[in-house]
Amino acid sequence: MATTTSLKRPSEFISTLPGDDVRHIMWRFADRMDLQMVLQSARAVARGAVARLVANGGRNTHDWTAQKNELLAEFDASGITSLFMTPEQGGYIEGPKNLALALVAYELAWVDAGAATGSLAGFLALGPIHERGTDEQRSYYMSRCIPAQPGEDRVTWRGAFCLTEPIPYVGVETGLLNGKVRVAEWEDGKEPIIEVDKRGRFITNMGFANFVTAAVDSGDPRIKGSCMVILEETDPGIYDRGTPTRKLVHQLSSTCDPIFKLQVPASRIIGGYTVKDGVIIPTYSHGEIIEAVFRRTRVTVGIMTSAKLLSAIEPLIRYQRDRFRGSGAVQPGSPRYELGLQQKQDAIHRLVGVWATGEASASLGFTAARMFDDLDPLEKEKDRVLAARGVGGGTAAFKALRKVQKDAVEYLKLSRERESRRDAARLAALEADPLVKFSLLDALANVFCPACKLWNTGHGANTMREAVSLMGGYGITEDCPGFLGHKWMDAQLEATYEGPEAVQRRQLSVTMVNEVFLAQYRIWISELRDIAARKPGTGACALATAMQMWLWTAEHLQVSKDADGDVLYHSNRQGVTFPLADALCWLLAARSFILDVLELEAKGPENPVVAEGLPGTMQFFTDLCHVQTARAAGEVGRICAELVFGYNRHPAWDDPDYKGCYRTDELISLESLIPGLASVAVDVVDADGSHPTKAGPCAGAAGLDQFTKLRTKLDSCMTGSALAKERAAEAVTKIMIPAALDYPA
Amino acid sequence: MANSYQVVVCGGIVPDPLQTLEPVAGPAGPALKNEMMLPAVLDPWAGHALYEAAALARKFPGSKVYLVSLAPKAKLQQVMMTIAQRVPLELVALDGPGGGFTDSAETAAALAGAIQGIAGLDRSKLLLFGGWESASRGAGSTMQMVAERLGIVDQFQGVDELQIGEDGSLRILERVEGGQHQVSVCDAPPALLGWATGNLGEPANNAQVGMQNMRTIMPSLQKAKPTQLKSGIAFASVALPKLQRETRIVKDASVDEIAKEIADWAAAE
Ligand SMILES: Cc1cc2nc3c(=O)[nH]c(=O)nc-3n(C[C@H](O)[C@H](O)[C@H](O)COP(=O)(O)OP(=O)(O)OC[C@H]3O[C@@H](n4cnc5c(N)ncnc54)[C@H](O)[C@@H]3O)c2cc1C
Known about the structure:
By secondary structure, chain A is an alpha/beta fold. Helix content of chain A is 55%, strand content 9%. In chain A, strand 9 and strand 10 (279-282) form a beta hairpin. By secondary structure, chain B is α/β, with parallel strands linked by helices. In chain B, the strands form three sheets. Chain B has a nine-stranded mixed sheet with strand order 11-10-9-12-8-1-6-7-13, sandwiched between helices. In chain B, helix 2 (73-83) packs antiparallel against helix 5 and helix 3 (104-116) packs across helix 4.
């Protein structure tokens, strides 16, 4: 396939907006008919009922209206509600469902992310039961949440997930639980009855939920630690849905501040409990449960923002092209009539930026979703192996896995060694070890999940603003095709709920310096060089250099101190760890995008629909990759330079010993030893203390040579990226778009 | 009513009507620009036929619906991801050109051949359904020729309703001039019904139905017979219908107001 960097103007342009077949290949579900159908189902609901509701002003209130409630029936009928369940529970898809849920979220958020949230919040409520519930809890609640079939006379249960509490309690800090659980009655030999006292804040689905999974702490010496409890609306006590949140976003989901004071049997503790010395010991703390749940559901949230960015492309192109049509003064056939705003370079360059960001974030999100599909069975296998070895949960499992991490790093090392030199038997043994497999993937998932949630939603929200601005005033009206204004505002919620950006950065600060992750990361750098050699033009080489720079910086910061001798890489030093986490996300997103484009190149020819326009499609995507990697490299360069230099103190003119500069008298005597020195020395202080007009002697880069070399190299690695942007922008002026948007505005 | 039917629906695929359709000259005659890459849908007329067939099959247990489709296999597969969720069906796929620039006689021959190849087809139960015309080329001639080739002489076009009498007879409403329907009664199958719009809405997607159908649809797509159509037809010129779009965005207009405006416009034309 001819995609070259030297090309100024390509001979082939992308013909149409990328269709489903292209996406099936890029996001790796070309062989999954079940997922392709799920996607079509969700699309029909999104571009049908959901879009009509938004167009009719359904978002103009935060109340849960009858019209919004009708969406639930649409979700049920289309199979979205039962998607989460296994076939035995009444669902229809076998195996892990992270990618399936991500695709549904993508399709719904293409039109309205509130609708996506409404449908997914039910799964969030079931999440604790699914991940950590007992078998009985799982089958009881899952089967009730399956929509009633025709002829069945029962209510379809819907759930809410209740963690966040009114200020000053749980928010980002999930440990600050005020919700309490106490023993209400405990007759000898009988199941204890517990009382749950919990207030929630901003709880999704609460306007109609029949049950709630609530996080609570013990308020009783007879219960140990925290846990999650299932509450039902018919339980004795108070089940008050509370007032609707006066939110500005995601108006198609229901959000309230509920109040619960209910008595329930202790069997409602998620995951069960044991009794030791008269104390109820929940099997899982609330922290353990929410970690298992969020690490999956956060990926889906990240995908919502990606969908919105990509959904903006078609309406933006149409707006730009049609901008001057219909005026008598602008004649059909004239460039102004045909191209409209696309005559202006900035308009199309910014559009390319939005598109590249959308692609990279979708690639990152779907990569993460697939990772969890692969991880789910490995995690079960890991639990099985550890149990068979008599290793319990909690700290014991943690210790056992620490040891496995060493094996995982050894495996990676051996796998890269030359065949003739390595210990083949050891390699085979490590390769076959399910714990090693788990450890390798777990280390990646621990990074990709927060990275996707953080970057897709945070940077996504910023980019959504850019998309809105390209629509001019129309962008911030209710009439904007594609509802871009709503999507922009909504993106801020995606960046906030299920853990705001700070939570993701905090998690990344720990997981991104894990040795098993870094060992894989190092391999990616050399793989990217191979890709660059094989297929120049994606920016893979620049990305490899940027990754090297990030790695150098991460290693440097972990062993270096600041000007005052304080440790730099520390959990309390978020000024260091958080920006470094941000930088990593740019890299992962750009890499995921490149890999997806290579997949398209490899598999596209097999599909006649994709094959037809493949050279043009590849040229465009290759250029988009280049645009994105250059942007990522720029961000990484800036962030790393700030971190590496920013914590050193700048030399000052009045430093004792005039560190970093010469005194005039000193220079005169040195001139006799080094002739010519006086003419090149710039930082010179006269006897009267006067000095050049600048902040101080220029800061040196002692010990940082490698970094400055990398920085220079990285800058020159940008070569060609602006040409790629120009090519992509030209393609955007030529691409064919449909005559009208396929959902109402 | 113990009767059951074998309803064979002929349905092609057409580009999604919202797409920009631009005729271009291809190596083998006229084509639509980027047609292969444009998203496709089941031909809407054939869609009405299919949904009517499914409703009939639901009413008469033991009935079966076949969808016979000549189209590029990869595009047909894409369309099936939606259609398969709507009605239980068995697909008979022919891998060949599906655009509007083919000879309907050739298409009819290929479809008839495929129908003859369906194992266990019983003429006494056979109802041949299709669209009375196609959205890609409204010639309205294909189904008639399929029926002729199959020796089905009871043919009805522009059908909006089919009722089965107690005696098993078919009572059919066909569109005729002046907004009227012609009522015909046909004793028994086999018969051809070329559907106009019928009376049914599009069934909602149902993933369970889809999963069930996929078990037969995928093998059928895999073994779809490559079908070349002889190019016995030449097109002198090809153009899009002249259309004039005057768009106004009006919010909150009542149905009556909209209807009145359309009626006034039609009267003025
Ligand atoms: C529409 C909507 C729906 C929601 N649905 C649900 C739901 O269904 N169930 C549920 O339980 N919750 C839900 N939430 C709550 C949501 O998850 C929380 O709002 C979110 O986790 C943040 O908590 P907070 O608002 O208390 O922010 P705070 O905890 O006050 O944090 C505010 C900001 O302070 C900074 N910050 C706080 N802590 C740190 C730290 N340790 N390090 C660095 N910076 C920090 C960050 O900038 C952070 O963004 C929903 C919220 C909304 C708006």
